[in-house]
Design goal:
The chain is of the alpha+beta class. It has one domain. The protein is built from two helices and three strands, in the order ββαβα. A hairpin with a 2-residue loop joins β1 and β2. It starts with 7 loop residues before the first strand and ends in a 15-residue tail after the last helix.
Length: about 80
């Protein structure tokens, strides 16, 4: 039996990539979570998931930059690229 796939949810037969917005950035983003539709086919959704999650992480990264525009960056990025 397969395990649960991280950052993917099934809502009414449709798959979505889902990422929770950190509490300190919710005022900037305006949402508590970000979602991106992946379609109705599970295999196709699994193929599209990494790209969709990367885009959602990019949106959070932009909000993080906007939040810290005047401050020097002392902590590493929230989603660093390998």
């Amino acid at each position: 039996m397969a395990g649960k796939v991280r950052n993917m949810v099934n809502r009414n037969g449709r798959f979505h990539a889902r990422l929770v917005v950190p509490k300190d950035l919710r005022g900037i983003v305006g949402k508590t979570e970000l979602r991106s539709p992946l379609g109705g086919d599970h295999r196709q959704a699994l193929k599209l998931l990494p790209g969709a999650v990367a885009q959602l992480q990019h949106q959070i990264g932009l909000a993080e930059q906007k939040a810290g525009a005047g401050r020097p960056q002392s902590a590493p990025a929230r989603y660093p690229l390998a």
